[in-house]
From TrEMBL:
<protein>
    <submittedName>
        <fullName>Uncharacterized protein</fullName>
    </submittedName>
</protein>
Amino acid sequence: MSGLYEFDDKPENFRAWQSSLTNAVAEVQLTATQELDLMTKWLGKESGEQMRCIRAVHANNANSLSHARRGRDCYAAPEIIEQSLFQRLDSFPRIAAKDQT
C-alpha cells in the first residue's frame, strides 16, 4: 500500500492513480466492499464525495464495485481529459514579444 497516493481530482492524472490502486489491490485479496473502501480512502475531496454517494445508493448490492467503476467514468473518459487539458492551455499565461529575456 506504500505506492498509493491521494487522487488530486484532475482527470489527466486519474489513469496513473488508478494504476497505482490496481497494483496495490493486486498484492492482496480484497472483497469488492474492501476494495471500494480503499478506493474511497485514497480519492480526492470531490471524487471521494461522488464515490460516497454511489456507495450509499448501492449499499445493499453485493456487486457494488461495478457501480463504483461507473462512477470513475467522470474522470477517465477521453472527452473529460481533453476538456481538462484544454482548460489548462486556456489558463496558461500569454507570452508577448516584449516578454523576451
